[in-house]
């Protein structure tokens, strides 16, 4: 990833170049300094607006500084509500748990326990596999091709991406990566292969503690698993004494049209991981939902200082009340998703790309990685923040706030089309030049 | 850890018993629901005050809802400042980095790069050892007896505590635990032993990527390393091509009287980990400080959604400006610490305990673990939140906000004395009963 | 595995029951005490002959006490030839290496180096993967479903069998087990799947140091890989910078008709492991053949006391001279194998079994594991030593000495037919009883 | 290790240079081709004798081609005794087990079970730690500084030597290396330190399955553990639920004056490993002795082709009958050892070296590694095979056959003295030159 921006002067402050670590990444793709943000828009220091089709990688499903979530937070801080109380009981936590029970768990007849891990998705993954290993007494865990679950050592073991794995490779043990749904194309039934491998006592794959998967692989390129595949994984897991863990960090919180992404798959996982948008405001928060029979933690066995982010409890409770106390929001998202997927398919057809994804986690797959990067950059020049994903960054990922308006969405896609046109004609020109040269 | 509280009714909401995971811990020791907090005090729902000698395990060095930090945050939210922007450039981040450079790095002539890891100390530890392993191409890491560095898989490998390690044991590889300073008592020079082991090519201890240690072991029981020991570890590390990583999560941010706990030890570590109090407000935030020559990350190589918590940048910048723009605060803390340590030593002498610790991270070591637990519980009954630490929870840890007033501190210690008296006389009574019975 | 034999008296000496470890296995299946052995026959203490269709699991390709191998050994011992000289140069070693070069390597234009590991196949596997890991600097190794490579920790990691893996599971790391040729049946091209997985940088399968496979999986149930599959594995390995290691412990030394089992597959592996029959006499000996560019060992880097078994050098040299100085023996074995495979297919057809295998490593696969065990036991009662293999011990393995005569082979198969008849009619009787009972 | 020998011509056959692996080691130090061997002497192809102070690293305690062991073997082969029968019952095995029971176990009131592992010491170590891990359900194993237990992956984990560990480092997990007896010198009580570390639940050292140690570290430099240290290790192991495993591969079979090296230490280990000299003839053979309560193997759980080397059973039984049916041999060895140790101490004193070791496993420690190597080479020029050991190869190891005569031993030490004189005067000359040059 190159970084051509000039620091200092009217551009970017020197301090980034001088003391921020080389590990910084998104800032290199969007080299402006953001100040304000509201709804579907970010604004740079000078007030220039950027339409957000990235949404904090799915952390801003309700948009930026969403009212009345913001108001609840303001009010809490104003009243000197406790900010930091580790995992003690607090009025803010009570409020969140009550809202979660009433708006989410009871209506869906789900009896999950709720674990507050440290406030990152990766840590909730760490907690989930630690618990599954404890419960089963087994070390191995099944993960899937192109899965992404985080970068701390335990979560990294589950993550497929080799550039993330590189420096920790010899430590990433006790995970077996198996082919995701349709990994070998639509004609190969990977579920059947996985069943054979795990029921064969001589396959060399040790009986696992858990199967960990995303129902839509966000970082993996908007790959979708079918209901039947998910069901077969769950049936197999239970047949061999393993737990199912659904990583709903990116696909959950309404992204695919339901609060939990598995609601239309016909399964109930044993553990569900949620983070990103759960706070409703982009504040660090994560949860592991655990079926009660597996909640065999000793007190404090998986601990950490920031297990209870009271500010996030306040915003999360407000979000649940605002968006999930009835079906209206879910219905809206599903309708938007249907429209959006139609438009994206049109674009795909028009430009020779493949449309992928589900809900409002959509993707356009390029055969040419360079074009994909060029489109992303051209979009940014035109005021649209959009990212790529997939093993070769070959999928342009469309991940707007769920609260985006029809016209904002159209504006965004218009920028995408325009970028595609530019890149398309530039490619054609290059091809013509190349032909002329021979 | 038992939990005798009755849920429901006028006590605690049912929702905790019904759906919060069994992993919850501190709430069992302090079974009330906290609402407001200010300065050195937490208040429960009914308004009862609790003096805080735990300070979010060191996350609230400036107390609860500290003004003017709170004001800065209010103002930011009011102006729709962006809350969530992953690791993009933002006005809030610029402000924090600038304050950090000007108030901390430049005056100390430290040339650290700053990595924003996910906002927990454990994750900063994960990042640090991953980077050290990448830089050296070595897998092994040296950690120390009674060290505590977190519960995600990589950090857990460094952590000594067996109850945390239990369910992940077979996965906790490539860490060698060696005896901390004075681990075998003051007459055994563990630095010399460590030197012999690591310079002997046949000791079986593989050349390490890094030495990771706390200068004061908070969870380990307020154990302190001497300057000479720290210097010898650093010299040895460099002699054998390893990095030094100081985990300053609990002992840093002024806790021992300087911003960095190593400032009076005569070393400059290659990487320093800071979390807990760095945000100044108890918001999730963590940092790895990295000497530039080791900052060989590829962009995004260690990533995660919540790498930039803008709310925390705002509060952290406010805290740096308020407390660290000159020497006044550090001087005050050192004076308080001197007084405090005198008082604690008095108490130790009076009650047959041992005084431990450094700065305002002090401890009273009991020979009898039950007594220690009883004192903690009696303190809570009298309105003082205080915790135990050490391998057997035999050390009562005194960890007040650094901003605590003289009279608040005295009030707290008075509660401790009173609890000691109660437990003392109860022990004596029991002993008398036991004698009478024989 | 049950053991109904009565120890003591005219049966078996008490000393086995009293002090031999519970780990003993084959003796439980063939509970007699063997004394003499010659050619294709073992004789128990009382002189009763047993035809040997097991051949020391492939260690006795030239039969028991084969002349003139035995004579060479007698002569050597008589002359006080050095028995034990670690890896020093010795007249016996010179003789073996010279015979190997002249009879095997030169005619096949193979430029292998020869490493004498400790005298077991598993240790040669340990050496091979250690060397591949050293050469590539990578930890991961690709092994295959139903592969068997030994029980020491490194070799065990490659072995598929879960009962062998059970007690070491958490330590068996850095091996990825992929589906062997035809593992999912003849219509699924596992080579194509493996290519996709290993060329996808996000599959989660780390770049391997080596691919390790058997060309015929002896313990795995006489599964055979096709030439094209072997070639694609070799091409893929080289494309991604990995070595190919063929484990020829059971399938080598003429078992499939050529000295090396890969000779008719169109590949030349980077490392070949040979053990079992290499000594020609059943004495412990093993070899790793290494292409010179990979022979980057430091002197003594993989060492061990019994790296040079001079008695085995003498017998191995005699065997090479007797059987491999021209094509005659190989031709005979191929002819025998063709006949044998025809007969075995006939039996399979007649009794509703599947014929498997290659060369004189043949198998009859039962759909019913009990029947397979019953046939094995009935054979033993009639004086035939024969074993089962496969993940469920469902394959009766036909592994006679390569030197077996036509009539001996017919005698053996006659015993198998007779056992099949007995088991068949007993099954039918049981089925009739079962039907009558309903 | 350099190799200056010229291959071909009247020197060494080309075939070694051409096709033997670079891993060969001892042959580089003793670059002649050995043919015959008898008693304490090896003879090269041309008949030149070499006195053997290495004894196959302890595999030839009864000397080369020892009568009547050789006669028993000849007779067995002549009668077509079965050579290879895996782990079936055989007349040869019966004979060995009976001799072992009668000559060794019964007189010492030891109730060990006997496991025949594959015929190498390392494999017996693999078996022992696998069994301890199975029995305890724990992964970690305690090994000691400078211990040497073999080079297969499991055994290598226990081995201290970094040059052996180098290429497998990231895979050598679940072993904690602790300081051996007197590792930090005679004033530091390492047993007390080990007790503290293992009884501290927060030391970071996981509860182990076993303690594995040598009573005299042969490869580690002839380091000796005291009876009290061994007893404290055994007591500690049992207190924390771990097994003790004594690796008696080099120190056992009479080397220290008793059959088992632990007989004068006041302990009975839970598992004892024996190899090297157990066959009495230098043939590959090894044993794990297991206290019955720990013999929880499933049949075949740790298997391998060469688990029963019948030739070795014959020679081992003959050796037990000849040397261990009464106390005479043990008494002789002890007397020899006493004399030998006196002489070696004299030499040490005379040449400024340190005398080390126990029984007939003695060592002379040099402060200057170069001198040690030079003495070894000078000895070989004068017809004495002698090796170095210790972390820097700084200890000249004196390991003659136990059957060596007084005059042979004196001859050998005379060669050592003479070599010391040469090296001494050469060092002095160099020093003089160096002084003159300044």
From TrEMBL, chains A, B, C, D:
Question: Which cofactors are required for activity?
Answer: pyridoxal 5'-phosphate
- Asked if Transferase is a keyword of the record, the answer is yes
Q: Which domain of life is it from?
A: Bacteria
CDD domains cross-referenced by the UniProt entry: OAT_like
**Entry's EC annotation:** 2.6.1.76
Q: Which UniProt keywords are listed?
A: Aminotransferase, Plasmid, Pyridoxal phosphate, Transferase
The protein's enzyme class: transferase
Any GO BP: ectoine biosynthetic process
Q: Recorded GO terms, molecular function?
A: diaminobutyrate-2-oxoglutarate transaminase activity; diaminobutyrate-pyruvate transaminase activity; pyridoxal phosphate binding
Q: Which pathway does the record list?
A: Amine and polyamine biosynthesis; ectoine biosynthesis; L-ectoine from L-aspartate 4-semialdehyde: step 1/3
SUPFAM superfamilies on file = PLP-dependent transferases (SSF53383)
* Zinc is among the record's keywords: no
Similarity comment: Belongs to the class-III pyridoxal-phosphate-dependent aminotransferase family.
User: What name does this protein carry?
Assistant: Diaminobutyrate--2-oxoglutarate transaminase
Q: Which organism is it from?
A: Rhizobium favelukesii
């Amino acid at each position: 990833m190159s970084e051509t921006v000039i620091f200092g002067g009217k551009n970017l402050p020197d301090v980034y170049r001088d003391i921020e670590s080389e590990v910084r990444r998104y800032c290199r793709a969007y080299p402006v300094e953001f100040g304000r943000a509201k709804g579907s828009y970010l604004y740079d220091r000078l007030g220039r607006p950027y339409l957000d089709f990235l949404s904090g990688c799915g952390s801003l499903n309700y948009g930026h500084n969403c009212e009345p979530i913001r108001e609840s937070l303001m009010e809490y801080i104003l009243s000197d509500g406790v900010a930091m109380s580790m995992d003690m009981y607090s009025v803010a936590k009570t409020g969140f748990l009550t809202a979660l029970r009433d708006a989410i768990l009871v209506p869906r007849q789900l009896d999950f326990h709720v674990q507050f891990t440290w406030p990152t998705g990766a840590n909730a993954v760490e907690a989930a596999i630690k618990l599954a290993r404890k419960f089963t007494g087994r070390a191995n865990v099944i993960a899937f091709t192109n899965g992404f679950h985080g970068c701390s050592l335990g979560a990294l073991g589950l993550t497929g991406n080799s550039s993330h794995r590189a420096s920790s490779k010899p430590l990433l043990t006790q995970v077996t990566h198996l082919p995701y749904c349709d990994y070998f194309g639509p004609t190969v039934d990977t579920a059947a292969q996985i069943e054979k491998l795990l029921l064969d006592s001589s396959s060399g794959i040790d009986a696992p503690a858990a199967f960990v998967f995303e129902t839509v692989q966000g970082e993996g390129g908007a790959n979708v698993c079918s209901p039947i595949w998910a069901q077969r994984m769950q049936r197999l897991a239970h047949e061999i004494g393993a737990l199912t863990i659904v990583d709903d960090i990116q696909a959950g919180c309404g992204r695919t049209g339901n609060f939990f992404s598995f609601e239309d798959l016909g399964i109930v996982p044993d553990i569900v991981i949620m983070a990103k948008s759960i706070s409703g405001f982009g504040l660090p928060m994560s949860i592991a939902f655990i079926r009660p029979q597996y909640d065999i933690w000793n007190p404090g066995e998986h601990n950490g200082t920031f297990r209870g982010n009271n500010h996030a409890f306040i915003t999360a409770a407000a979000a649940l009340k605002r968006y999930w106390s009835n079906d209206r929001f879910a219905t809206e998202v599903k309708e938007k998703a249907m429209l959006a997927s139609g438009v994206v398919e049109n674009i795909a057809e028009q430009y020779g790309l493949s449309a992928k994804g589900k809900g409002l986690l959509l993707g356009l797959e390029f055969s040419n990685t360079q074009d994909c990067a060029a489109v992303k950059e051209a979009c940014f020049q035109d005021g649209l923040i959009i990212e790529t994903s997939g093993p070769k960054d070959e999928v342009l990922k469309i991940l707007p706030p769920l609260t985006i308006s029809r016209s904002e969405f159209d504006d965004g896609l218009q920028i995408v089309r325009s970028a595609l046109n530019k890149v398309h004609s530039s490619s054609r020109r290059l091809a013509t030049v190349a032909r002329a040269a021979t």
